[in-house]
Amino acid sequence: MKLPTLFILLFSWALNASAQTDSSGYKSHIHQVYSNKFIIEKINFKGNKRTHASILLRELNLQLLQEIAVDSLPYFLKTNCDRLYNTSLFTDVSIGVDTVAANIIHLNIWVKERWYIYPEVSFELADRNFNVWWTEQNRDISRSVIGVSIKQGNLFGNREQLTVTTQLGYRQEFGLGYSAPFIDKEKKHGAGFKVSYSQNKEIFYATDSNKLKFIRILKEPMLQRVFGAISYSYRPQYATTHLFHTAYNYSKIADTIAKLNPEFYYQGKTSLEYLEASYRIEVNHVDNWNYPLHGLKVVGNVAARFVNFKDLKFYAVGTLELGKFDQLKSSKFYTSFIFRGKLSLPVHQPYVMQQGLGTKYEYVRGYEMYVIDGYHFGLGRGSLKYELLNYSIKNIPFRYLPVLPLRIYPKIFADAGYVYNPTPGNSFLNNQLLYSVGAGFDFVTAYDFKLRVEYVVNHLGQKGLFLHINSE
User: Fold this and answer.
1) What are the backbone angles phi and psi of residue 407, rounded to the nearest 5°?
2) φ/ψ (deg, to 5) at 471
């Protein structure tokens, strides 16, 4: 036996006997050292004043005693920075490496925590998007909702979220919600609940020529709603989450609504009561959950609704979302392809359940001014973007925002969609292919804020500039 080999074996035995312990309480046992690999002996976290180290370890694909090829180390470091940032707990994440022996390393993970508990004052437009409010509603400031929420985004350091909400203005709402992503030692199971009461002085009651028709009576609420839900989640792996959700929903409308549209709730009824049981699966392998540039995302959801217990009716709906994000080789160009679809059974449901395209999140770009009701729909989006700016302003003298990132992506895109409705009435955009092309800019900055500015031409030849505060 050669002397270096004997030395390595004795060294490994000594480490095993001593059973060193890291800052998180984990023991290290180094058995063998390979010349082309690193072995992780310790993982140290710094800056997590509130968040427990076990929560951070749950997100990593690194562990103690793991062997990593030398040329793979940069990939692992970048991947795990992304994973920790995706928790939405931190404004900045970085990982350093200390080499303490020939092939033995310690990982030092620095995090800067977000502001977890704060009163959040929100200003929200009641309309489907900014463009509808600006043009069709004549910038009516009364069609806004001012909300005050007390949020605790990391209640006991385990990523729990507690929210107390009060909204005033166009819509009044009072709500309480709590969710804990981990309720077990293995950190695979979670639970949560939400209760709320809301009312509106004005609501839309029908769709005419792909436009919503509104009614407002100041003497009485047009809509009152009571909602309660409990949920259970199971996350066996980093990227896969199963969610089981049970909700109770009771809503009541003014008699005027039922007279104007007897099918609003069904056969002239003024109230709707139902239980909903749903299952959702998400497989999310993208790099950044807030604004992805790489990876694949799949989300499927099925729900069963048991409506009006005295006159029981059953409705079912299923939705699917697919997203593929790539970087063109050795460039700053990125592509994205997104599909969303919905199927409903039976193909005759109350008006309030006929949601197709044109809502706040589901629309073909360039048709933001229209509502296309229906039971089934398909939506496809394709984009080519370029990373024009990726810059961070550092050393800001504010604890909860020490780094201000700013990313800008000019882009071109094309959308297509289709909505099926066997009884579209006088709406002319149902049951036909909708498509558009356009160009614009995406702005991404701290605390998951995104702004999209897009100029679009649709198949009707209509052109317009549209603003959205969300991702595609």
Assistant:
1) -125, 140
2) -90, 175
Q: 6: which 2 tokens? A: 């004997």
| Contact call for residues 312 and 304 (beta carbons, < 8 A) | no
Which residues, at least 6 apart from 301, have a Cβ–Cβ distance to it below 8 Å? 278, 279, 280, 281, 318, 319, 320
How many C-beta atoms surround the C-beta of residue 43 within 10 A? 25
Q: In what order do the strands lie in the sheet with 104-113?
A: 67-69, 37-46, 104-113, 90-99
Omega before 346 within 30 of 0, i.e. cis: yes
Phi, psi at 130, each rounded to 5°: -60, -35
CB-based contact 56:238 (threshold 8 Å):
no
Q: How far apart are CA 301 and CA 85, in angstroms?
A: 26
Q: Distance between CA atoms of 405 and 444, rounded to whole angstroms? A: 8
Three-state DSSP state, 18 = helix
pLDDT computed for residue 147 by the predictor: 61
Q: What is the pLDDT of residue 123?
A: 54
- Token pair recorded at residue 315: 């409705």
Amino acid at 415: D
Please state, in angstroms and rounded to a whole number, the distance separating the CA atoms of residues 123 and 327. 36
Bridge pairing between strands 104-113 and 37-46: parallel
Q: Which residue has the higher pLDDT, 135 or 223?
A: 223
Tokens of 444: 């991404």
Which distant-in-sequence residues (6+ apart) come within 8 Å of 21 by Cβ?
A: 27, 28
What's the mean per-residue pLDDT of the chain?
86
Write out the two tokens for 28.
């290290």
Token representation of residue 34: 């390979």
pLDDT in tens, 154-171: 878 889 988 888 877 667
Residue 26 scores a pLDDT above 80: no
> Which helix (H) or strand (E) segment is 422 a member of?
none
> Which phi and psi (to 5°) does residue 375 adopt?
-95, -30
Which of the four pLDDT bands, split at 50, 70 and 90, describes residue 10? very low
